[in-house]
Specification:
Oligomer: single chain
Order of helices and strands: HEEEHHHHEEHHHHHEHEEHHEEHHHHHE
Helix content: 40-55%
Strand content: 15-25%
Strand order of the largest sheet: 1-2-6-3-5-4
Radius of gyration: 25 Å
Number of strands: 11
Length: 498
């Protein structure tokens, strides 16, 4: 009995220490983040951490695939590729000689794209233009310096150089020695001022192949894409980040350039520098390198509003792969109170081996080989709560679906135990604390939330909002959103299984 009580008090102490650490990190963050806004609208956030001579630098532009039109679907993802190609000074052996050749390539490529759209296009004329374009591209190779940014960074101690495009954001990131930070400012400001869309048609073909290889023939991605595309009717969240085949094929240098010049600009940009850097020196440096950029055009709010779903959407996707089940419910996004509740529901249902769905479906009933729970596809606008699972043979997706509903019914009918809620709440906040302790993780959180929520303080306010939620809140949210009329269900199965 003494041992049991001792363990109880030890666990309580760990829990209280965890909350105290998170609270300290949040309050400390408020004091440590230095904000500065340039006259052109660029937002800079600096956090000094001098324990190691490393700085993590994140540049986040608040534009993603959700901001594309029917004429530009896929352009944000294409630009992520193109902006690795260099500038007027980097990535070329001689830009003055390269420039007229790039103009010829664009002229021929544009004529070829226009001809391909004609239903009565002469095959011989198409072939002639294809050969002319190939010849110009071969000639152009003499001016191209491959992987220029990554090579410069790696030669100077940079690690983790990467970029990603989402529905809502585009981010470029690197961690590098603090004495190389001015090199970063030189490179990244040059990329914003003087980007060159070299190897455009070659890269476009690369992305079309990526679409075929990684989406059309990948069961997991195809299943997810089918779910999202059908869950949304109006909102552009329904469109894939990579674009559809016809979208990619018809993106032009002109469309891409216009999108780039309009939105990839200071007024939509947040920079976070976290690590061994002095705030006043960082501010002066960013002013020096980025301050003369034109502000650009603010990314507009999306006017399309997804109408309320008035009935279940159910689809069967025929594909030669093992069966899969995906289910989605519409939900609000941050900072709506219910979005915080869904973060806890995510933990309760699907985070780790102790979660309800894993224990029930994978371990006890052995109906599934895997189950995952997540929010999708973006965070700027109302989104989806998704449950994705793979049936274990010989069980079917239908059996698995009924078992999921049984677990959701428990959440709707019974109050979550206080101990269970405290456990998942602590785990959620501990995961956030882990990100805050990492220079790269903190830089990512700061830039993401400044762009998405309009204020990086969402990070430090998160703990307070999560701690205020009760077991009654969880039950109310479950009953509000986990309804038949609000869900979309997609089953992937082979044709012979019909």
């Amino acid at each position: 009995m003494i041992q049991i009580n001792g363990l109880k008090y030890l666990l309580l102490g760990i829990l209280l220490f965890g909350y105290a650490s998170i609270a300290f990190a949040s309050s400390s963050l408020e004091e440590k983040v230095v904000e500065h806004q340039l006259a052109n609208g660029l937002k800079l956030l600096v956090v000094e951490r001098h324990d190691t001579p490393i700085v993590s630098a994140y540049i986040t532009i608040g534009v993603g695939s959700v901001h594309e039109t029917s004429e530009t679907r896929g352009v944000a993802h294409l630009l992520e590729h193109m902006l690795f190609k260099g500038t007027k000074t980097l990535g070329t052996t001689d830009y003055e000689k390269e420039k007229p050749l790039l103009e010829k390539i664009e002229a021929v490529g544009s004529r070829l794209d226009a001809l391909r759209l004609q239903t009565d296009a002469d095959p011989a004329a198409v072939m002639a233009l294809e050969e002319e374009l190939a010849g110009l591209q071969a000639e152009h190779k003499q001016y191209v310096v491959k992987d220029v940014f990554s090579n410069i960074y790696s030669e100077n101690g940079g690690v983790g150089y990467n970029a990603f495009t989402s529905k809502d954001l585009t981010t470029y990131l690197i961690s590098l020695p603090s004495n190389k930070l001015e090199l970063w400012a030189l490179i990244e400001s040059d990329r914003m001022k003087n980007p060159v869309l070299r190897e455009f048609y070659t890269e476009r073909d690369v992305i079309r192949e990526e679409r075929r290889r990684s989406y059309d023939t990948n069961p997991r991605r195809r299943h997810y894409e089918t779910l999202v595309t059908n869950a949304f009717t109006v909102h552009p969240y329904r469109n894939p980040i990579i674009g559809w085949h016809s979208d990619i094929a018809n993106l032009s240098p002109q469309k891409t350039r216009e999108f780039l010049q309009k939105y990839y600009a200071p007024v939509n940009t947040v920079i976070a520098l976290v690590g061994d850097v002095k705030a006043d020196e960082a501010i002066a440096m960013v002013e020096r390198y980025f301050g003369d950029l034109n502000p650009g055009t603010p990314v507009p709010n999306i006017s399309a509003v997804e109408p309320g779903q008035n009935g279940e959407k159910r689809l069967v996707d025929i594909f030669d792969a093992e069966p899969r089940l995906a289910m989605a419910w519409h939900k609000p996004t941050m900072p709506h109170k219910d979005d915080y509740a869904f973060d806890l529901i995510d933990q309760i249902l699907g985070n780790g081996r102790t979660s309800r769905l894993y224990r029930s479906l994978v371990e006890e009933k052995k109906l599934a080989t895997s189950v995952s729970v997540y929010g999708a596809p973006g965070s700027r606008y109302a989104n989806l709560f998704v449950i994705d699972a793979v049936p274990r043979h010989p069980h079917t997706a239908a059996e698995l679906e009924e078992a999921v509903y049984a677990e959701l019914d428990k959440l709707k009918q019974e109050l979550v135990g206080v101990a269970e809620l405290d456990k998942v709440r602590n785990r959620l906040l501990t995961d956030q604390l882990r990100q805050l302790r990492s220079n790269s993780g903190l830089a990512r959180l700061l830039t993401s939330y400044q762009s998405l929520a309009g204020d990086w303080r969402y990070v430090s306010n998160y703990q307070r909002e999560i701690e205020q939620l009760t077991v009654e809140d969880i039950k109310l949210v479950a009953n509000t959103y986990f309804t038949e009329s609000n869900r979309t269900v997609v089953v992937l199965k082979r044709e012979d299984a019909l």
